[in-house]
Inverse folding.
């Protein structure tokens, strides 16, 4: 091993072992690291990868480290560092992230949490009253787990009302992986007639209008819809922007382990009717100029409360008020309030129903605001079925408190040195010069995730500021240089706080050549030099946001030193360390990262013209292009004129 190779701690990183752990964790994160369920964040790194990077760095830098993350977000770095007994400085511009991270790192005792959960659970039945009480078709007492609503709009040309089912197949009655395709299924024709067919494997005539319906048919292709009265065609935005009535068309009833899906009864329609509920809280306006929020705005969602049926809003209000008075004031109560607030991401008019697997996805699934014309309103508390319910969140919170109490963490040995969490623009960190041993971070992923916008409904319910986050390091609209400029300024601040022998270890994933060029250019402009690099499998490629797409499952990890102003000797001019596999193309993603690594390994010595070369090489790579035959069952999100990469 040469002296140049010895500069990078990545040589201590066991890629095969870490990848095995990361795959297991990414498929069941809430079980492996329960704390990640405490508050919603997007694009969290796995604890397996983050912890291994810390351990690798500690080999050459023994003792208690001071670790900083200027893009703290979901808190992966802070949590892994704290569990290893290191000093932690975490900063994020987003108040939702900073508030959630403070609670995560200061997790109260299991007893405090359980007392608050018990008191809220005792109050819940009276608050829910008869909101979801129902019966199975055989008379067994049951609960409504989901209420599926279809958007009903009027044609501007002829006034004809139409149910805007997005697909002919509304829902299987049994999950696909349990043979659901060959079981009864609910189908709809273009005119909006709904009926139960024997199976979803071939076409059926509509019992009402006799139209032959192919279960594979889609009715909103290109985000356009044809009026079944006069034949005129309009965009969904035009149909929805003037207002839609969200009519309950199917309900999922649950009694113990028994589930059934069918049209709502008259009583169930009354339970779901908006005029039966009187919300008392306003949440603020949906911005009309955001990358993601304008999609909601132009489709008729002008206020954040518009995303919720009145029943869901009222019950969330009641339960949040009850949570705020459950247990003693303190971290236990605060954690329960945060768990209840998290349930607001299951907004009942933008949460998409998965017709193949009989579950709903939160309104920000896939790192976008979903826009669907068949939405799923969940049982707010939970009926033993459904994602993101309060009951599930409280169970996860209790499990997290116990996991944290039993975790072999080190902070108890260093009383009085609590982790520092700062909510502020990371271009200025509240740290002295040369005070940090390691900056370990994963920067925001260019324009893939608009964190500030996606957190707005959660911030609205939490009573946090809804102001735009000036300085948020994301690629915006109308300013192509914004991301590079802001990232450069944050990285310069990271260079300021690093000790003379400190390192920046950065993980990054993206399919966009522009994102990589901006990231590498920012690193060089901030005065960093690459001393090591490798790739590691870090994400679950079967996630709903990635499945069926050419999405990223691997991270490129860069180990860098602040090189500005240093006097470099011959040893320091040696090439950066990297495993031979880094530059060896494998599948499409590995080949793409190998092409990126050619330039990433030269950060600090990138020559004029490298950007044009990188743009030409990366843009022509198959991985940078959308996959053929991508999953067609995706939420109706974004404007078709926008062409962005799949979520990182």
């Amino acid at each position: 091993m040469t002296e140049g190779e010895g500069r990078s701690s990545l040589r201590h990183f066991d890629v095969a072992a870490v990848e095995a752990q990361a795959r297991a964790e990414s498929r069941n994160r809430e079980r492996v690291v329960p704390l990640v369920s405490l508050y919603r964040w997007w694009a969290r790194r796995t604890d397996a990868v983050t912890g291994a990077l810390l351990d690798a760095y500690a080999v050459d830098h023994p003792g208690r480290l001071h670790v900083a993350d200027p893009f703290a977000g979901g808190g992966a770095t802070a949590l892994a560092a704290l569990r290893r007994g290191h000093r932690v400085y975490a900063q994020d511009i987003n108040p939702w992230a900073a508030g959630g991270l403070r609670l995560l790192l200061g997790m109260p005792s299991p007893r405090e949490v359980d007392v608050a959960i018990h008191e809220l659970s005792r109050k819940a039945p009276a608050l829910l009253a008869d909101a979801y009480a129902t019966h199975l078709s055989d008379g067994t007492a049951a609960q409504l787990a989901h209420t599926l609503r279809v958007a009903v709009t009027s044609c501007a040309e002829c006034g004809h009302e139409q149910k805007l089912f997005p697909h002919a197949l509304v829902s299987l009655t049994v999950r696909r992986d349990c043979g659901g395709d060959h079981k009864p299924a609910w189908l709809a024709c273009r005119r909006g007639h709904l009926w139960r067919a024997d199976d979803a494997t071939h076409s059926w005539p509509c019992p009402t209008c006799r139209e032959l319906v192919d279960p594979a048919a889609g009715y909103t292709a290109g985000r356009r819809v044809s009026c079944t009265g006069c034949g005129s065609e309009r965009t969904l935005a035009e149909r929805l922007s003037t207002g839609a009535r969200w009519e309950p068309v199917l309900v999922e009833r649950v009694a113990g382990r028994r589930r059934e899906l069918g049209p709502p009864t008259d009583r169930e329609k009354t339970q779901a009717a908006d005029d039966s509920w009187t919300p008392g809280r306003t949440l603020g306006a949906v911005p009309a100029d955001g990358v993601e929020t304008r999609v909601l705005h132009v489709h008729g969602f002008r206020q954040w409360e518009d995303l919720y049926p009145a029943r869901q809003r009222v019950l969330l209000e009641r339960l949040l008020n009850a949570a705020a008075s459950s247990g003693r004031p303190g971290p236990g109560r605060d954690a329960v309030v945060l768990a209840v607030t998290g349930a607001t991401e299951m907004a009942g008019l933008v949460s998409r129903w998965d017709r193949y697997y009989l579950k709903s996805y939160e309104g920000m699934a896939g790192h976008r605001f979903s826009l669907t014309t068949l939405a799923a309103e969940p049982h707010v508390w939970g009926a033993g079925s459904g994602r993101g319910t309060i009951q599930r969140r409280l169970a996860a919170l209790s499990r997290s408190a116990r996991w944290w109490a039993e975790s072999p963490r080190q902070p108890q040995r260093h009383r009085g040195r609590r982790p520092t969490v700062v909510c502020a623009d990371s271009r200025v960190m509240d740290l002295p010069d040369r005070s940090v041993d390691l900056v370990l971070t994963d920067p925001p992923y260019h324009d893939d995730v608009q964190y500030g916008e996606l957190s707005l409904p959660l911030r609205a319910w939490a009573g946090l500021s809804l102001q735009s986050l000036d300085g948020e390091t994301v690629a915006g609209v109308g300013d192509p240089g914004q991301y590079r400029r802001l990232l450069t300024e944050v990285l310069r601040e990271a260079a300021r706080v690093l000790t003379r022998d400190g390192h920046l270890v950065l993980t990054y994933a993206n399919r966009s050549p522009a994102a990589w060029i901006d990231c590498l250019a920012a690193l060089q402009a901030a005065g960093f030099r690459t001393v090591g690099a490798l790739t590691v499998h870090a994400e679950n490629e079967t996630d709903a946001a990635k499945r069926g797409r050419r999405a990223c499952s691997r991270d490129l990890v860069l180990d860098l030193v602040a090189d500005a102003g240093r006097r470099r000797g011959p040893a320091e001019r040696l090439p950066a360390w990297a495993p031979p596999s880094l530059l060896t193309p494998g599948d499409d993603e590995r080949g793409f990262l190998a092409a990126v690594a050619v330039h990433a390994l030269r950060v600090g010595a990138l020559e004029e013209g490298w950007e044009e070369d990188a743009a030409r090489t990366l843009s022509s790579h198959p991985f940078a292009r959308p996959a053929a035959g991508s999953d067609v069952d995706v939420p109706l999100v974004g404007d078709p004129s926008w062409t962005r990469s799949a979520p990182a």
In short: The mean pLDDT is 89. Residues 182 and 387 are 25 Å apart (CA to CA). The first strand starts at residue 66 and ends at 69.
